């Protein structure tokens, strides 16, 4: 552990104007406040904030950041208040400590909720001052270095997973490569010990085997540069175990197939020398295809610049070479901490970083902290593709991104109104996966709205958050309309007066704040119209069960009512029951089915996998065990298909012919979305049974004009 004078000397070594008195007072304050508290390792607790402050000095952070590092746990773990810190150390330190302090009111919530709430607060704090994130990363790094002292394997695994999911990607986003690598390797060792040990053993073998090769390669590269008049520093670096493991997984490759386990850096004075050095390397050594990347002309979003190339280098060895300037190397290692502003003690607003602004947008659109955390994890994945707008602006996206992800990355309004995309000048479907270097032009329409289908193929957190927000708002509107209709119908059927003033009086019964809340809950099935009616008219005594029985058992009149259609061939129903097929899942003979007693409508037949059945999970009295009769296939049934059809002459005709040739009959057809190149169509087809519908799907899939077809729920 650093002693008091050692910490002060470290700060003074790079900042002569550092407030020595404040540093000394903060050191003593932290020591006194944490008192006799101990860590899992048995060390005094104050050793942790001291070590965090020491890590911050390695990145030459300003005096206020180091003091905040010393005090970062005092508000959370002692009786210290933010106001007390403000009075002793000033506003800047108080704001940094407050940003790092976890929420005190969420201790009773689940671990997931606590994690999500804490990360939400951290994001808001670092959006005001990015130094909050730098201190938090130093805090997490020291906790990971001492992770092995925790006795609970479950707790160690949870912390390690959180580090891989959130903190390592955050470190990568701000270019803190050293911290990112160490966090990943410690977490990897905890979560996948066998894989870590295996890779480490192979690396040790390579070191022994290549102990003479590495110096020879460095010497040869130095000689190559010197002979061509390039002043350069050449060094070698080994890929980390976690990076090797990820690359093996992504490329489905063995350890031996990786060409960049050992990389060599050529560091030169200026950008021109970078490209000269690249020319020398490529003229002398064979380049490995698809291993060249120029991050100088197109830097990574975190500011990283360098040229990467793979070659069969000296000693006939496959190697990766990175070429950069001294300034680029400083940024590559220290990220935003290399920024001159921190050495001047100036505040840098996090909102100036595009990726933080995007996370803030996700925060605004998420319905709860857990959804925000899920979408944030998606947004921070490291693997990226780089695409261009028609104006040449660079957009970095996660791998497997689509034009819809690209549209939302440009701007939320562009994503919301996206109707199509041109990729490299050609109109392509919105679910097309983008590749590195694609030029993407988004086609928009004011009449367009986000589609629920998009959520199935978009990969960025920003796109998912925006789509889900629209869907939530749209569904609520539908639930409000349905709920109002159900309430009006129910009150009218019982000859009771229905008015909104009466509903206001029962808000507390249903935890509602408005009339729309009542309507929405009824429409969604969270409460029933009968529940509301009983709350408004508590003296009304008619039994709900009696009402249901009346609706499904016809009164005896001595005459047989002849149905206009043939009776449904279902086993397990009482003769004469009112019964219908549920329009939400369109069951067919061959599907497993269940019956649900529905107020006023009799029995609804659902597929056993119908999502709507979740609403009746707590009402077992409404479930009926039913099955298809032997002759159920003799009458036609309606199956619903969703089809993506090429927008070209004759396509709809070919679709109709294919269905007709398969002995199917189109009962209804609805175009739900149209672009310049594709139609999205919902088709109701009369078929005999599930097998018949499956045969039609197989026939449609064989057609050139059909790009996608599947059964719709």
- Give the fraction of residues assigned to helices: 40-55%
> How much of the polypeptide forms β-strand, as a percent range?
15-25%
Number of helices: 28
Structural class: alpha+beta
Separation of the first and last Cα atoms: 62 Å
Q: Poorly predicted ranges (pLDDT <50, ≥5 residues)?
A: 103-110, 339-352, 375-379, 543-567
- The count of DSSP E runs of length 2 or more, i.e. the number of strands, is 21
Quick one: overall form?
A: globular
- Averaging pLDDT over every residue, what do you get? 80
Report the biggest beta sheet as strand number plus sense, adding barrel if it closes: 6 strands, mixed
The value of Rg in angstroms is 33 Å
Overview of the molecule:
The chain has 28 helices and 21 strands. It is an alpha+beta fold and 713 residues long. The longest helix has 33 residues. The radius of gyration is 33 Å and the shape is globular.
Furnish the topology, listing elements before pairings.
Elements: H1 4-14, H2 20-34, H3 47-58, H4 63-71, H5 74-77, H6 82-89, H7 91-100, H8 111-128, H9 131-145, H10 153-173, H11 177-191, H12 193-209, H13 213-227, E1 233-238, H14 241-251, E2 262-268, H15 271-284, E3 286-287, E4 293-294, E5 307-312, E6 318-325, H16 326-334, H17 340-343, H18 354-365, H19 369-379, E7 384-388, E8 394-398, H20 403-410, H21 412-416, E9 418-423, E10 426-428, E11 440-444, H22 461-493, H23 500-504, H24 515-524, H25 529-536, H26 544-552, E12 570-571, E13 579-581, E14 593-598, E15 602-607, E16 623-624, E17 627-628, E18 637-646, H27 651-661, E19 665-674, E20 678-687, H28 690-701, E21 706-711
Parallel strand pairs: 2-6, 13-15
Antiparallel strand pairs: 1-2, 3-5, 4-5, 5-6, 7-8, 9-10, 9-11, 12-17, 14-15, 14-16, 18-20, 18-21, 19-20
């Amino acid at each position: 552990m650093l002693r008091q004078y050692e910490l002060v000397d470290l700060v003074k070594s790079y900042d002569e104007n550092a407030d020595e008195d404040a540093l000394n007072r903060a050191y003593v304050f932290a020591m006194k406040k944490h008192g006799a508290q101990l860590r899992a390792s048995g060390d005094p607790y104050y050793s942790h904030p001291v070590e965090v402050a020491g890590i911050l000095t390695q990145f030459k952070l300003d005096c206020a950041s180091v003091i905040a590092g010393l005090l970062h746990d005092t508000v959370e773990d002692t009786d210290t208040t933010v106001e007390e810190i403000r009075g002793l150390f000033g506003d800047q330190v108080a704001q940094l400590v407050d940003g790092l302090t976890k929420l005190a009111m969420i201790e009773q919530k689940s671990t997931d909720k606590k994690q999500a709430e804490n990360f939400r607060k951290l994001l808001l704090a670092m959006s005001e001052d990015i130094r909050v994130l730098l201190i938090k990363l130093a805090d997490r790094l020291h906790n990971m270095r001492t992770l092995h002292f925790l006795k609970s394997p479950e707790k160690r695994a949870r912390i390690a997973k959180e580090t891989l999911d959130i903190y390592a990607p955050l470190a990568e986003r701000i270019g803190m490569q050293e911290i990112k690598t160490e966090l990943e390797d410690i977490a990897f060792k905890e979560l996948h010990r066998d894989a870590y040990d295996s890779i480490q053993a192979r690396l040790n073998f390579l070191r022994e085997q290549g102990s003479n090769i590495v110096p020879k390669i460095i010497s040869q590269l130095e000689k190559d540069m010197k002979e061509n008049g390039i002043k350069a520093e050449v060094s070698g670096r080994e890929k980390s175990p976690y990076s090797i493991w990820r690359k093996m997984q992504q490329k489905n490759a063995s350890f031996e197939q990786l060409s960049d386990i050992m990389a060599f850096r050529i560091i030169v004075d200026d950008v021109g020398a970078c490209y000269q050095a690249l020319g020398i390397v490529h003229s002398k050594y064979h380049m490995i295809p698809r291993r060249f990347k120029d991050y100088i002309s197109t830097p990574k979003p975190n500011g990283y610049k360098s040229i990467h190339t793979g070659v069969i280098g000296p000693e006939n060895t496959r190697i990766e070479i990175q070429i950069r300037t001294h300034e680029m190397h400083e940024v590559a290692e220290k990220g935003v901490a290399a920024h001159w502003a921190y050495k001047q003690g100036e505040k840098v607003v996090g909102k100036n970083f595009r990726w933080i602004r995007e996370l803030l947008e996700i925060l605004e659109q998420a319905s709860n902290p857990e959804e925000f955390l899920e979408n944030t994890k998606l947004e921070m994945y490291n693997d990226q593709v780089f695409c261009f707008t028609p104006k040449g602006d660079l957009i970095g996206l996660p791998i497997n991104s689509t034009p819809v992800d690209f549209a939302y990355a440009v701007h939320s309004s562009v994503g919301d109104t996206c109707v199509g995309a041109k990729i490299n000048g050609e109109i392509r479907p919105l679910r097309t996966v983008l590749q590195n270097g694609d030029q993407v032009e988004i086609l928009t329409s004011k009449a367009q709205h986000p589609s629920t289908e998009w959520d199935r193929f978009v990969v960025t957190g920003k796109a998912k958050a925006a789509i889900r927000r629209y869907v939530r708002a749209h569904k609520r509107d539908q639930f409000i309309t349905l709920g109002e209709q159900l309430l009006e119908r129910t009150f009218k059927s019982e000859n009771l007066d229905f008015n909104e003033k009466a509903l206001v009086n029962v808000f507390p019964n249903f935890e509602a704040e408005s009339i729309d809340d009542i309507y929405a809950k009824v429409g969604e099935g969270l409460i029933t119209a009968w529940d509301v009616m009983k709350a408004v008219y508590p003296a009304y005594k008619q039994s709900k069960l009696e009402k249901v029985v009346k609706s499904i058992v016809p009164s005896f009149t001595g005459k047989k009512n002849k149905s206009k259609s043939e009776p449904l061939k279902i086993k397990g129903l009482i003769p004469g029951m009112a019964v219908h097929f549920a329009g939400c899942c369109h069951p067919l003979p061959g599907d497993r089915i269940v019956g649900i007693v529905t107020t006023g409508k009799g029995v609804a037949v659902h597929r056993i996998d119908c999502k709507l059945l979740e609403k009746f999970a707590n009402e077992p009295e409404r479930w009926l065990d039913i099955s298809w009769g032997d002759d159920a296939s003799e009458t036609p049934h309606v199956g619903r298909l969703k089809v993506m059809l090429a927008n070209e002459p004759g396509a709809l005709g070919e679709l109709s012919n294919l269905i007709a040739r398969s002995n199917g009959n189109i009962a209804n057809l609805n175009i739900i979305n149209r672009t310049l190149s594709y139609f999205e169509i919902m088709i109701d087809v009369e078929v005999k049974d599930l097998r018949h519908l499956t045969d039609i799907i197989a026939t449609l899939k064989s057609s050139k004009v059909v790009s996608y077809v599947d059964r719709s729920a």
